[in-house]
Amino acid sequence: KGDYYQYLAKFKCGDERKEAADQSMKTYQNNTPESIQPISMQTFTSMMNEILNPSTPKSTVSSIFKTLIHSLLHSPESHHSQILKLIADLSSHHPSLAQLALDSLQSMLPQLTDPPSQLTIEYLDALVNISERPVEVDDSLFTSICLAASFPVRLWMVRNSGCRVMVRPELLYPVLMGMTKEPYPCLREEALEALVRLGECAVFEEVSLVKGCYERGVQLLSDNEDCVRISAVRVVALWGLMLASFNVDTKTYWSNEVFAMLCSVVRDMNMKVRVEVFNGLGKMEIVSKELLMQSLSKRVLVLDQSPTEQFVLLASNVAGALVHGVEDEFFEVRKSVCQSLRTLTVLSVEFAHAALNLLMDVLNDYKVEVRFQALETMHHMAINHCLELQENYMHKFLDVLEDNSSEVRFSARKIVRLMKLRNHLLFKSTMDVLLKNLDSYPQDEADIFSVLSHLGRNHKQFVDLIANEIADEVEASFEGNREFNSARMAALLVLSISAPFLNADVCPIPPVIFSFAATFLSRICCAFSDVMNRDTLLEYLIQKSSSMVQPEVNISNGEGQNPLAKDDVQNVAGNEMIHSEITINNGEGQLPLSKYNVQNVALEMKPPNDVGQHKRPVHDSVVLTYINYILVKLPNIWPKVQSCSANEVLCSLRHWKEELTSLTFDSSAPADASAFALLYLKIIKLVVEVWDHLVRKTEVVSGTVELEDKLEKLDGRAKELMNRFIGFSAEEEISVLELILLTYTLRLCRSEICSRNFIFKRMTIIYLRTESFLKLRSDVASGFVAELGSLIRESSNGGASCSSLAFDNCLKLFSPKRLMIREGIRHRRAELSIPNNCPDYPLPFAPGLTASIPCDITIHNISSNCRAWVRMCINDGFTQHVYLDLQSFEVSGEVRKISYAVPYYRTPELDSFNLKVCIGLESLFENVTPVQAHGGPKCELVLLCEEKIVYLSRVL
Amino acid sequence: MAIETLVLGAGQEVGKSCVVVNINGKRIMFDCGMHMGVSDHRRYPNFSLISPTGDFDTALSCIIITHLYCINTLFLRFHYFLIIKISHSLILYSYIFFFGIICDSHLDHLGALVYFTEVCGFHGPIYMTYPTKALAPLMLEDYRKVLVERRGEEEQFNSDHIAECMKKVIAVDLRQTIQVDKDLQIRAYYAGHVLGAAMFHAKVGDSEMVYTGDYNMTPDRHLGAAQIDRLRLDLLITESTYGTTIRDSKYAREREFLDAVHKCVSAGGKVLIPTFGLGRAQELCILMDDYWERMNLKVPIYFSAGLTKQANVYYKMLINWTSQKIKDSYPTNNAFDFKNVCKYERSVLDTPGPCVLFASPGMISGGLSLEVFKRWAPFENTLVALPGYCLPGTVGHVLMSKPPKIELDPNTKIDVRCQVHQLAFSPHTDSKGIMDLIKFLSPKHVILVHGEKPKMVSLKEKIHSEMGIPCYHPANNETVSVPSTVYVKAQASDAFMERCLKPNFKLHKCSSQELSIKTLTDKNIVPELQVINEKAVFIVEDKSKKLKVVHNDEVLVMLGEKKTED
Question: Are A604 and A585 a contacting pair, CB within 8 Å?
Fold first, then answer.
């Protein structure tokens, strides 16, 4: 005779004994079924643990299962509920056994149904829990349970009928109808809930059935129990609608009845009932206009025409229902009212206007949820074209835009997007509010831009009116020393460029606006993301402003700098070009906006004679123009640097840098140009930072270290700029040279720097170069260069004698030139890759012997007479250079690919080591000190690529 | 059985609420107010009608006080001084009248209590809600002083009387059922209106009734709407102050007010809001604090110190009696800790720039509000917002007609160039609210009190025609008697009980049958054998005059027996 304790003790001790345990289990079942003692509490818990433990082996689980089923047949009824619960848990954790459990329980069920008791329900409950699908129950079982004497049994059945237990609707309906008259409130409630479920899924052919249920619901609306009333409201709403939809002719009549019936319980004292009422009202499909209007007025309305009989009867019930809802104390109710208005406003336009008044009041609510819901409703109304904001509402509405909850603001802006404003003043005030919004909630910027772009697109005529104001403001701020980068500027630009978006006809927006907008590209592109992507937008902007680029370049080539005069010229020229282009566009025909994509725009933008050409040149020039827009702005910000507001300048610089780095390229030429521009910007940025230090004389210790670091960086960058780019035009060359002179001057300004002589020497060299260059072109040196020249001549005995003060004076004269990049610039760079090398697959070497490192090198824009080196260093600092004889390679051209096995001579006595490999170019100008004595490069190297790490390991 | 209602006060008039109800032999007095308009014996309800002998202890089971409008009166004394100071010659006369009316609307539910309990000698229990109990002694004392010291009247009761009286008071909480004695149960329901106002439900045996007191069906910002369960009532006694008015949404009024204030403030102007009672001031302050919060306004709101202190003490203590809004936000921040409200200091008056100032007393009848008014009124960008009604004789009342100049006394004239905005908020329900409450409770009878006669008549007609409920509006000292419900106690047979526990309907489509456990009939009209529902229940009266409910299966058997007996 086995013992459960023993059996379970075995369970707990390791896997080996489990088999034995199972064995003993089986014998025990087979032999003495009737002698089993009831399972104890402790056993239940340990079984539970086994079941919940996911690592319990399958065999154990199944034997537990067998035991449970077995004991269900043989143990007293008091234990059944626990066993059933365990079985349910077991099958939910081990789905493979679920079907088996289901079958065995189902087979046991019939024995228990007469008379139905608590136990039957427990069986059914377990069945329902195990089965994923609703359980089918036959009619006789269902009726016997529903008519059972015990109240909880009935309650369970009603609660689960229609959702977890399937019963024929024909049977369910009368039973539930009977149940609604039960004396127990919770049975009535559950019966009504079950009727709601039934109404949702079943279809009834007979009107009388539906009507009967509806009327029952109406009766129970005045039940004494809150919970019953809640369910009754649901029944009335659902079955009332079913009743109404039976006959098309009487639909309005019945809908009105249902509407009035629901409205009559609006003043219920229970909050949940009221919420339910408004949920019900939100489902109405058709209601007569008079009743809707009545629901907004607490007084019974006096109608113009003679009211229908039905209206007279219902009016007092309906009166003020929605107003009461909106005034409710509980926000749940108010929210629900707003939700119900969503559908109701669609039913009648007149009502929608009146209800808007109510919604406007709700916008003052103290609960965010309610305000949000009200706005969502208004948005819904706007989509359905029944939202018309009068002027007096508009004022209120604009207040909401400044709400301190972000959801509410977003929702309000969603409505602004769809709005059609009546007059110029409203448009202006809306715009002002949005701009103000931008100040107070900078985090909403993207959304506000997008709204502005919609606003501009929808109200072209108003934008035209204020276009000139905007243009003036934008230009003033771009030229003057005010904000360069402010959100306000970006917003104004978005607004003005969005106006001519759909309509290509003549607009008074100056093209210069578009060019300014281009510099904000990444910031504003999200505003147009619904109609075009970033690249398309860029092309659109360039197209609109392209006409002005050419003249500007010419001018800056030609003569000195008079920004005011220049802009005038631009405008005139720009306008002309735009005109001509527009005629072309009209000739080609308009493309629908929604289909705007890269290609469409590209096609549309090309002048007709270019249509046949390849697309790329257009794109290249676009990028180039774009870069130039940014560079053009540099001289403008310089006064700011001098006036010590470095932070702002840095901010804009950073922004431009981001713009540049986010560009993508199809071809190399613009990539080179942008690399140049990027480097240029980086240098300017460093200059500004250093400048800030020097001018403000912040001589903090940490500051000094930082400054040294920055100067070092600046030096490196300047060298890079000199050496890695070729093909400068004369102006570019001078700009670059000036910039380098500037960096040296900055260094010299620091009196503590020890190597003054060295730097001075270098500067002199560069200066001479500049001077000769200027002479060659018979150009006048800028004030800065001239001053510097005289300084250098004065102290020919070496820079040591010059005071840093003298250099300070020089610095004050500096201002960056207007720099226009052209396509000629080439970026010298190299790509280095070592195939098949990574920490896991190192290259082999034998110590002491030369190791060869196979390199794939791609070099760009490096002529054969350049002296290129491969530099290899180990961690300890030892460096080896290998000359890369470019002439020996057959291939030539701008881009050259070379495969070359670089020898490394000094392999150390180690198991493995890492090499840092990179390619460098001998710097042409700075042969001041040789870097390495034995066989290395004569001049300093300028690195052309990132350092690559090569992993080597000893051959075993 | 009947419920007899004796109206001692507020019958076809406003003020002096006092209703004595006799339900099945239990007598309850609801409210015990006094009329302040008159100064003779008519000021108090005619208590002799309750018991000619003056033995009130046996005549009354208890007194229930629904509410009091306490906080206004706390400031009355202060108010009174200032009026005298400013212009004694002119306003002294109108003051008496004015004071009378103020108290009329505020002491009308409680005023005579001390007189009744202490002077007339009533020793039974008195029930009030907690806030009312907390505030009643303060108010009564204040009232007594004003009455005796200023008005120079004969002292009807003294401070000891008040203290004694308060000892008899038992405080009740909302929805707390109190067993007054073996038969009488009372329960308080929230009524809105003022802090601590309640509707009282009384039940004696099977008869139930509700006395509403003053209530409000639309929620304020700081007080909620009335809440009550659906009860089986025989009688509803309701106030009918605004029996014919239907008020539109108060949102519109609030919006106008806020717009006016916002406009004024954004133009750099100053806003003066003279308020009296803390209730109204709180309401407006919550409204504005919310608005400030939402609109991110930074303009300071000042609240003169005395008001703030009082408000915080009472409202924070009694948070459970305020509106849902305040209860919702209570765990995170107390709505009465206004974020945008700063403490008032005198320097504020001359500080340039926009601000909003709540100053007491209301109606600009003196004190700080008058002082501020004198300073600010000559400026065009100032806004004076008058919440509520202004009595004749106050500056507020004169201001409503927007005169170019106001003459305070022969020596003081104020140029008035400021804008004036009026707001009307009332804590009483309107006629729609009354109708809605009656409809929700659907009682068998309605009695209207606390209202003007013509309005009551028209409301009575409306109730009668729309809901078919008999309605009465007794005058003072009249008695109305309505029949009450008495459930007949009957013995149920075992077979009947058994059937009752099972649902007794059969499975035909829509053919379920009435199930009735109790039959509500008066004992007098029960015949010897009555068939209530042919198929389900029979009521049988046997020889011992006990009613018995049996099932129809048994009826035949019993009938057989009876026949044999006869």
Answer: yes
Where would I find the beta strands (DSSP E) of B2-100?
2-9, 18-23, 26-30, 62-64
Strand positions, DSSP E, A30-168? 135-136, 165-166
- Among A497, A493, A422, A487, CA closest to A457: A497
R_g of chain A, CA atoms, integer Å:
42
The confidence score (pLDDT) of residue A418 equals: 83
- Local structure of B433: helix, strand or coil: helix
Name every chain B residue with its beta carbon within 8 A of the beta carbon of A209: 509-510
| Residue numbers of A between 301 and 320 with CB closer than 8 Å to B | 316, 319-320
Cβ contact, residue pair B229, A178, below 8 Å: no
* A360 in contact with chain B, both atoms CB, cutoff 8 A: yes
Flag if A267 and B440 touch (Cβ within 8 Å). Answer: yes
CA of B105 to nearest chain A CA: how many angstroms apart?
26
Chain B contact for A442, CB < 8 A? no
Of A904, A897, A866, A910, residue with least CA distance to A884 = A866
Closest CA to A86 of A97, A35, A8, A160: A97
Q: Label residue A23 by pLDDT band (50, 70, 90).
A: low
Report d(CA B433, CA B435) in Å as an integer.
Answer: 5
Say what the pTM is: 0.70
- Quote helix, strand, coil % in chain B, to nearest 5: 40, 20, 40
Residue of A nearest to B434 (CA): A267
Probe site for chain B from A364, A395, A406 (most B CB atoms < 10 A):
A364
Which residues, at least 6 apart from A655, have a Cβ–Cβ distance to it below 8 Å? A485, A523
Closest to A645 in 3D by CA, of A708, A691, A680 = A691
Q: Which of A156, A216, A206 is nearest to B505 (CA)?
A: A216
CA distance B274 to B363: 6
Q: Which two tokens stand for residue A154?
A: 């009935």
Is A269 in contact with B440 (Cβ distance < 8 A)?
yes
The C-alpha atoms of residue B300 and residue A50 are separated, in whole angstroms, by 67
What pLDDT score was predicted for residue B50? 81
How many Å apart are CA B410 and CA B88, to the nearest integer?
Answer: 12
Q: Tell the residue number behind the tokens 């002179």, with chain if given.
A: A741
pLDDT at A925: 58
Residue of A nearest to B436 (CA): A267
How far does A363 lie from chain B, in Å, by closest CA? 10
Residue range B130-136: average pLDDT?
79
Residues of B annotated as part of the active site:
239
